[in-house]
Amino acid sequence: MTVRIALAGAGAFGNKHLDGLALIDDAEVAAIVDPVAAAAHKVATARGIPHVATELDEVLARGDVDAVILATPTQMHARQAIACLEAGKHVEVEIPLCDNLADGRAVVAAQQASGLVAMCGHTRRFNPSHQWIRNRIEAGEFTIQHMDVQTFFFRRTNTNALGEPRSWTDHLLWHHAAHTVDLFQYQTGSPVVQAQALQGPIDPELGIAMDMSIQLKTEAGQLCTLTLSFNNDGPIGSFFRYIGDSGTYIARYDDLVDGNEQPIDVSGVDVSMNGIELQDREFVAAITEGREPNASVASVFPCYEVLHRIGQQLEAPER
Fold first, then answer.
1. Which residue, of 55, 195, 240, 275, has the fewest CB within 10 Å?
2. CA-CA-CA-CA torsion for 52, 58, 61, 66, nearest 10 degrees?
3. What are phi and psi of 317, to 5 degrees?
4. Distance between terminal CA atoms of the chain?
5. 96 preceded by cis ω (within 30°)?
6. Which phi and psi (to 5°) does residue 174 adopt?
């Protein structure tokens, strides 16, 4: 079975998905959707994709599209995911699923009503480095005591990963913290029962907090300390230190070292070293096998419940 996919969003992350999909035998990209026609045509021409549209509704009406990957602005994710499901299309929506809890709940309800595959791009579940850790946990060889995570960027203008201007602004809590909150609960297998946060001043130009500190505790007692900043002058990205009962490990995207910076070979963990490709492989496999995917919207929804609680704290007036 070949899954015919429309990709919505021809920007930096959309192209990463196209790179991954090109390596998946059961996937065929049937259409590109982007409100900027020139951008859509440029990508379609370069990759030999047959159909271009500027409106999502156009591809949702097509009979030659089975599924949609949404690499669109955060504020559109929930509404577009629901539209895909209601049109009978499987959907993979990039992280975050939503930027408010009610919208996330509505996506989960739409998936349950449709019975279709609906998945969210929580890539950390798929990076070989984090898979290696999970395999040790499931084998009973490692138990997390504390996760210390740094998510660092340097941002002064509203640009994407390619340095290009964009029409929306991402958020330390509802976007970047979502990766860690979900991964922490996923890897520990225990729900977060305590969460607290502090944020720095709101940037007058971007309208978002540029610094944030989050602390989490699971029902089983594990801790997570998360530091996020758009002010970091140095290497950018998210760096995960797993402190456990039988070792310490540091995951940097698809790479892994121990606590003494000795490399750990994770090349045999999965069929690829590319977390986004592996995420897309899971989406296609879930469709062809008729099953719930890892990182289904239902399975990641508890993360957004925690984000909601933290957001309420941050919005409360200081005493």
1. 55
2. 40
3. -65, 140
4. 59
5. yes
6. -75, -15
Task: Please count the other Cβ atoms lying within 10 Å of the Cβ belonging to residue 315.
Answer: 7
Whole-number Å distance between alpha carbons of 264 and 245: 18
Residue type at position 123: T
Supply the pTM of this predicted model: 0.94
Please report, for residues 27, 89, 179, the alpha-carbon distance to residue 134 in angstroms, rounded to integers and kept in the order given: 27, 31, 16
Distances from the Cα of 225 to the Cαs of 7, 20, 119, 149, 187, in angstroms? Answer: 35, 32, 27, 6, 15
**Torsion angle defined by CA atoms of residues 2, 283, 296 and 158, in that order, rounded to the nearest 10 degrees:** -130
Using one digit for the tens of pLDDT, what is the confidence trace for 146-188? 999 999 988 776 665 556 665 656 789 999 999 999 999 999 9
Alpha helices in the chain (DSSP H): 12-21, 37-47, 56-60, 77-86, 101-114, 128-138, 178-188, 275-289, 297-315
